[in-house]
Task: structure prediction
Amino acid sequence: MANHGRVAFETLGCKLNFSESSALAQQLLEAGYARVAMDDRPDVVVVNTCSVTDHADAKCRNIVRRAKSANPESTVVVIGCYAQLKPAEIAEIPGVDLVLGAQEKFNLPRYIAEQDAVKSESETLGRGVVHRGEIREVTAFHPAVSAGDRTRSFLKVQDGCDYFCAFCTIPLARGRSRSADIETTLAEARKAAEAGAREIVLTGVNIGDFGKAQGENFLGLCRALEDDAALQSVARYRISSIEPNLLSEEIIDFVAASERFQPHFHVPLQSGSDAVLSAMRRRYRTDLYRDRMAHIVERMPFAAIGIDVIVGFPGEGEAEFKETLSFLEDMPAAYFHVFTYSERAKTTALRMNDVVPVHVRKSRNKVLRQMSLKKQWAHAAQFKGLVRPVLLEAEVEDGKGSRLGYTPEYVRVAVPDSADLAPGSIVPVTLGALSEGRVHAQLTESLT
Result:
């Protein structure tokens, strides 16, 4: 099985995880494995986990059960943030064979081969084998770019974080901030372009920190990507989540003037209360955030702006939550990602007083999700009757005869499908009514 086995990947969480899963899958392909779906009796199942929400354990257990159901003899490997943070806990999950930490996962073929040798000597190990070093020893940057989607690729440009916010375990799971240099990153982007990617999403833990150790910066990377002759087939770039204190006016101005960087920003806020931001140990206050949003709208009036918000952080009383509501109501947002605060081991928030009851946290989450839906509809409604270019995806709505895609402003569009609509095509459409979370549109003229 170690040479020419069948491997399936199950990836949870962020775009960064998806880019790393793709890179690890390529390692296994080069080692002789064939990538298959979970229900295709894989010999190896790799579970790439997340630790942002408090459901990591339940999700991991569910996938392990599915893997063993598909093939009881399969080797189950768990990697990712959850694996680095709680390896012993994962090793006790029935069916888990191997747990790899933040550094060890990048030697996946070797560890699987070693595990195969151990399993051949014993019917059962009783618990998973753990290979996991201390996070302070993780200093290498491993480039990654997702593959297999002709429309969109996720390009990992940075890893780790130096911020140590009070609620966050990411520095404990991924280590200090680090990245490759611009030239190495361009080489990874060219792989995506050669595979046919029409859109590249720049992703990482804290991408605004790109290039610090090399004396480079994120704006320099963006300029290099746009100017590189080998990347002209890439029609679109998007910037994934970027901290407001690192989203400079120069970056915003660059995107506004660019033909290929899309008018779409995802900027974490976490709270609209300065007192809560201070308790969270965030590196900005609401005045800076408001200024950044105003500059985006000044340069790109129809830009899509996504906002991360955490509700129920310790010390968030009714007054602080109302501050957040008021602040968000005034923001030119296209959508929110709303997270309910949950306690995390080894974070400073665990030592804070004024804990918010769980039922209050959930109630506040519901309020903000309702506001997010209103913002999403209002953002999409701006474009009704306008002609916008839509990058078509492979996905087709079964039974509805519609192919899905996105405008530059991240409006999800459904276009009547036809044989002429190939994934990766950019088509001009006239946007119509919004329903079921997407805008319905009609082709306007010939394909581009």
Summary: Residues 141-262 form a domain with the Transcription Regulator spoIIAA fold (CATH 3.30.750.210).
